Description:
This protein has 3 helices and 30 strands.
Amino acid sequence: MTTAPPLIGRELISLPTDGISGLTFSNHSDNLLVSSWDKTVRLYDASSDVLRGQFVHGGAVLDCCFQDDFIGFSVGADHTVRKLVFNNEKEEILGKHDAPVRCVEYSHATGQVITGSWDKTLKCWDPRGAGGEESHLVGTYYQPERVYSLSCVGHRLVVATAGRKVNVYDLRNMSRPEQQRTSSLKYQTRCVRCYPNGTGYALSSVEGRVAMEFFDLSEAGQSKKYAFKCHRQSEDGKDVVYSVNAIAFHPIYGTFATGGSDGYVNVWDGNNKKRLYQYAKYPSSISALSFSKDGGLLAVASSYTFDEGEKPHEPDSIFVRNVNEVEVKPKPKTIPNPTT
């Protein structure tokens, strides 16, 4: 009798040939945008497993995001910020940084593209302009250190940098940060993602922890914050700690998934401080995660993140799994019956 392999989702075809740096679903469909160290940005229809388009850049692509179903943006090691129009295969350079560009976000609230670079700057771009960088660049904002991760919700933007620094901006007034913070976690930040309800953000570190933070600076607001351990295993009697590389919030329930270098994806109920689900182990590190617009699909990048340096590893891959409600829906709190 043969044992069925664990259900980790459908593997996409026409995969990148090197590490997967980012992936994200469209807000309008099951289109999935993927960036890779193989210098490509690929557009898939994740529900039908079709590669819809591809652009090849001059260096490793470190992140990507959507504006709408067929327009995206990419950034990477060649210092360049690009606008990609997939339905007519046109590419436009919005501008450049002075070092590799690590992350990109599109703000639907302002219509701007926001990029963060290892040159210690944040830049905002208007993708609608015609012509060179001078027509697209809205502003340059200096950061305390190299930018590692960005996330925006509504008019709020959170910027996580080296040195465990976190700047919170109001996109309507970028002259200075609204808040300047230091991460409550002791080790390097890997990922930051804003809560869908706009009240705060989750931040993960290389040392198997996630911090749940809130924008409200009042004593009552700050009393809600906490941090928890995750992506750890006991091996030979020792606690082995893994980096938490990715965070993705479910768009309906506000629960969230984390992906670690241990190859596991966990789903958490942040409000009730509980783990809801752990998926079967993936072949390699989890480098990126994204839920589809209705939360019915979860895209998982299983891609070695070189935590242990150069070594033989499983092929880089993308899995798309159907999400069951039981995996992501918060469980109601049970109230004990009063004793009589």
